[in-house]
Amino acid sequence: MSPPDGPRSGVRKPPRYGRYVALLAAVILVLITVNTLVTKPNGVTGVPPGGQVPPFAVPLVLGSVEGDADIAVHAHEGQRGNIAACSLRRPGVLNICQLYEHEPVVLALFIDDGSCPNVLGTLQRLVPSFPGVHFAAVSLKGSRGSLRALIAKDGLTMPVGFDRKGDLLTLYKAATCPQLTFILPGGKARGKALLTDPSVAQLRSRIEDLVAAAAKARSGGV
Question: Model pTM?
Answer without folding.
Answer: 0.81
